[in-house]
């Protein structure tokens, strides 16, 4: 297949990108268990990706591309162990695996190295959230390792410059290696201390799946599924931690809308326009049960408050049944807890629904000079919606166009440009 047409090569490249998004976390987690070095694990996983980029355009995409990457990455890990003199401790820990290679066929070795992926990924989360790292570095590194996110995507999630995130990730991997951090789930008080960073990581991974930062698709369901699975494991591990159940509740309820959030061509459908009959009632039931457990266990924290807001939408069978007064109150409580301008922006939406668009616009305008929202596309998007409702079409059009220029998600950009075009037609 040396003369593979350009369009076929491009299709294969897109396939490889998609497979990497879905499988990179599993690759890195498994390699990290083998090598006890997350930096080296990511390097070898990237090597497997490069090999796929070189071979698949010639040989074609394998029937099971994820398994192909895993096998290739494990072979590279074994080769690395043979070629290099590792620290004596690592030789002792991994020596039995090398001995197995002398006795078994290669496929037997690869099977012997397998552990449940979920356990590997949970260990990877807690390793990346070790207290030797700053809170910001913990979240950035775990998003990189488990979410398969590019540096610029993580930067947008943090609302900080891309070079800042790149430096955090490099320093984090170096720090973990120098501190010889064990690859394990901590126990007792140490586990509880590291929980807040872990929950932040899990939720940011979920959010990237729920509303993709960039690319051709608005949703990346595999990331939502990974985050939900990790959240459920944490809930079993820490049944008395209210915020763990709060996070699970929030993710379950938000995930319940997945089928209703995109149209036949993959276009986004906004919350108030969704067919609520398509919401997954099973997930809503699970989410409401988790929320009840969270509220029963203690004071409402960051995730429990957000879950309570999501529950208001879930309980409303029609958009007009939504309890906007309760939602506005919950956002106020959340704003006092977090001081987040994004929470204030969401509160502005709720106030606009409760008291009219002028009330919402007043709060949005108060956020105009907030540095953390300078390149946040939802600020002009919300402002455009409120201006549209007030009949100020030219201003609304300008805001929708500005929001479209700021987003890197193609589906979301198309929606915003469509709304801008609608302002032109309504102004005639």
TrEMBL record:
Positions of the RNA polymerase sigma-70 region domain: 26-85
Domain RNA polymerase sigma factor 70 region 4 type spans what residues? 126-176
Which residues belong to any copy of the DUF6596 domain?
A: 194-294
What is the top-level taxon of the source organism? Answer: Bacteria
Secretion signal span:
none
InterPro entries hit by this protein: DUF6596 (IPR046531), RNA_pol_sigma-70_dom (IPR014284), RNA_pol_sigma70_r2 (IPR007627), RNA_pol_sigma70_r4_t2 (IPR013249), RNA_pol_sigma_r2 (IPR013325), RNA_pol_sigma_r3/r4-like (IPR013324), WH-like_DNA-bd_sf (IPR036388)
| Pfam families per the UniProt record, alphabetical | DUF6596, Sigma70_r2, Sigma70_r4_2
Q: Which PANTHER family match?
A: BLL0085 PROTEIN (PTHR47756:SF1), BLL6612 PROTEIN-RELATED (PTHR47756)
- Tell me the protein's name: RNA polymerase sigma factor (Sigma-70 family)
* Organism of this sequence: Agrilutibacter niabensis
């Amino acid at each position: 297949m040396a003369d593979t047409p350009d369009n076929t090569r491009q299709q294969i490249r897109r396939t490889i990108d998609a497979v990497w998004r879905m499988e990179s976390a599993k690759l890195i987690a498994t390699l990290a268990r083998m090598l006890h070095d997350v930096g080296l694990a990511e390097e070898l996983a990237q090597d497997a990706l490069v090999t796929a980029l070189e071979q698949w355009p010639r040989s074609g995409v394998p029937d099971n591309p994820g398994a192909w990457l895993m096998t290739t990455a494990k072979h590279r890990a074994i080769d690395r162990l043979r070629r290099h003199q590792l620290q004596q401790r690592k030789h002792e820990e991994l020596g039995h695996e090398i001995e197995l290679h002398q006795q078994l066929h290669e496929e037997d070795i690869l099977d012997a190295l397998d552990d449940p992926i979920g356990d590997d990924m949970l260990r990877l989360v807690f390793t990346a959230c070790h207290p030797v790292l700053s809170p910001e570095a913990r979240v950035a590194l775990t998003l990189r390792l488990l979410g398969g996110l590019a540096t610029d995507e993580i930067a947008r999630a943090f609302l900080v410059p891309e070079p800042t995130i790149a430096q955090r990730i490099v320093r984090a991997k170096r720090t973990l290696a120098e501190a010889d951090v064990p690859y394990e789930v901590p126990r007792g008080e140490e586990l509880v201390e590291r929980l807040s960073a872990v929950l932040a990581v899990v939720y940011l991974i979920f959010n990237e799946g729920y509303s993709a930062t960039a690319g051709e698709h608005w949703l990346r369901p595999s990331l939502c599924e990974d985050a939900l699975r990790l959240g459920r494991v944490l809930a079993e591990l820490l049944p008395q931690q209210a915020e763990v159940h709060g996070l699970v509740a929030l993710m379950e309820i938000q995930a319940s809308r997945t089928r209703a959030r995109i149209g036949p061509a993959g276009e986004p459908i906004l919350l108030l326009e969704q067919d609520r009959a398509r919401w997954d009632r099973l997930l809503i039931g699970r989410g409401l049960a988790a929320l009840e457990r969270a509220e029963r266990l203690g004071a409402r924290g960051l995730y429990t408050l957000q879950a309570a807001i999501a529950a208001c939408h879930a309980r409303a069978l029609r958009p007009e049944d939504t309890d906007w007064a309760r939602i506005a109150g919950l956002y106020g409580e959340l704003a006092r807890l977090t001081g987040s301008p994004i929470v204030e922006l969401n509160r502005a939406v709720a106030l606009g629904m409760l008291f009219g668009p002028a009330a919402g616009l007043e709060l949005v305008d108060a956020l105009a000079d907030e540095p953390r929202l300078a390149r946040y596309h939802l600020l002009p998007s919300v402002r455009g919606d409120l201006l549209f409702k007030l009949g100020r079409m030219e201003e609304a059009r300008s805001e929708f166009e500005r929001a479209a220029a700021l987003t890197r998600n193609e589906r979301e950009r198309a929606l915003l440009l469509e709304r801008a075009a609608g302002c032109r037609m309504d102004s005639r």
